[in-house]
TrEMBL record:
Residues 1-106 form the Alpha-carbonic anhydrase domain. Belongs to the alpha-class carbonic anhydrase family. It catalyses: hydrogencarbonate + H(+) = CO2 + H2O. It comes from the Eukaryota. Gene3D superfamilies: Alpha carbonic anhydrase (3.10.200.10). GO terms for biological process: one-carbon metabolic process. This is Alpha-carbonic anhydrase domain-containing protein. GO terms for cellular component: chloroplast stroma. Pfam families: Carb_anhydrase (PF00194). Reversible hydration of carbon dioxide.
Length: 113
């Protein structure tokens, strides 16, 4: 199996290297149509939460696909460099769900055809 990030319809390495190059100022990396991302299933979970890194901003929409995917160590390394993340894990432990509602989206058969 190919790692998941290879399927997102663009060259991850090229985009991340452009993002991490801070010497040339801003650069246009193009547009990615989220409909081009092939996740293998149209079923997913969604909830309103917060960022995992300080300042842990609230009202972030999280979307989680049902099937676990893999990424390579190299892809993780490139992503960390792009966001300047020197940590080895999330910035905080698992938080209580509190009032949040987790919803499962399942398109009906007509929508899938």
């Amino acid at each position: 199996d190919f790692p998941y990030l290879c399927f997102v319809g663009f060259q991850l390495r090229d985009h991340l290297e452009n993002i991490t190059d801070t010497t040339s100022g801003e650069s246009v990396v193009g547009v990615i149509d989220p409909r081009d991302i092939k996740i293998g299933s149209r079923k997913y979970y969604r909830y309103l939460g917060s960022l995992t890194t300080p300042p842990c901003t609230e009202n972030v929409v999280w979307t989680i696909v049902r099937k676990v995917r893999t990424v390579t160590r190299e892809q993780v390394k490139l992503l960390r460099v792009a966001v300047h993340d020197d940590s080895n894990s999330n910035a905080r432990p698992l938080q209580p769900i509190n009032w949040r509602t987790v919803q499962l989206y399942r398109p009906n058969e007509k929508e899938e055809n």
